[in-house]
Amino acid sequence: MSAFRNSLARNVLLAVPRRALVRQYAPAIRSFSLLTRNINPSTSSSNNNNNGKVFRQSFATSLPFADFSKPSESLEQAQQLMEEGISFQSNNMLPLAMSSFQKSINAHPTAAAYYNMGVCYFQLGDFQSSINSFQESLKLSPHHADVHTNIASAHIKLNGNMAEALSHLKAAANIAPQDAEIQFNLAVISEQTGDFDGAIEAYQAAVDNGLETAEMNLRNVKTKKFAKLAKEAEFRDTKSE
């Protein structure tokens, strides 16, 4: 079955994912993760290790965003409008890009169009609208890890809702368990919310899947866990005296 595929692009703005999903048969590329920016974990990353910034390097993936098994004029129009929107988006012409994506949705709703709309809203700082668009994308393509990752990012930027962020990162990790950087982000948020066991498991998964720099984070969170256990034991001993 043919499908819309990712041609993901992100720029180095403050926690702004510039991902574009569309071209039929095109590979997907992710450039960096924004989840841990401004969260200040004891981080490392696949590229940089500064102030909690985790950069996601590019790699290929693909997911179905529209069913081309039964071509239709509306779907072809939707794809053309999608590509037009991607062109505008790549030149930072967001209002025009959003207009094209909306026209694509009107012609034939696809997960890719809603996803790209969500990216535009994110870039504009309208995180609630971004979440809404990503949710619409999930309705049409429920098994897309990147959508969950970006929803988590949007919740963090909107109101620091770590519970929602953690929920969506767990969903992303379940969909793509071998994605080391999703596991890393899940570990960071788990650590931030005090779930050291969850953080250890996710950091270990990141290491096992090739993110060697997560080993430092793994050691650090194990130290935190043992310190917490020691303090709890000391408290129990003091209380029993």
Structure characterization notes:
This protein is mostly helical. The chain has a domain at 4-27 and 62-176: Tetratricopeptide repeat domain (Serine Threonine Protein Phosphatase 5, Tetratricopeptide repeat, Alpha Horseshoe). It has nine helices and two strands, in the order ββααααααααα. The chain has helices spanning 73-90, 94-107, 111-124, 127-140, 145-159, 162-175, 180-192, 196-208, 214-240; strands spanning 4-6, 21-24. It has a two-stranded antiparallel ribbon with strand order 1-2. It is elongated, with a radius of gyration of 20 Å. Residues 1-69 have low confidence and may be disordered.
Summarize the structure.
The chain has 241 residues and is mainly α. It is 59% helix and 3% strand.
Straight-line distance between termini: 70 Å
Secondary-structure content class? mainly alpha
Second-tier CATH architecture of the domain at 4-27 and 62-176? Alpha Horseshoe
Largest sheet: 2 strands, antiparallel
Task: List SSEs in N-to-C order.
Answer: EEHHHHHHHHH
CATH class (first level) name of the domain at 4-27 and 62-176:
Mainly Alpha
CATH T-level topology of the domain at 4-27 and 62-176: Serine Threonine Protein Phosphatase 5, Tetratricopeptide repeat
CATH superfamily of the domain at 4-27 and 62-176: Tetratricopeptide repeat domain
Percentage of helical residues? 55-70%
Principal-axes shape call: elongated
Oligomer: single chain
Gyration radius (Cα, Å) is 20 Å
As a percent range, the share of strand residues is: under 5%
Sheet with the most strands: spatial strand order: 1-2
Mean pLDDT metric:
75
Provide a count of the helices.
9
Q: Runs with pLDDT <50, length 5+?
A: 1-69
> How many strand units?
2
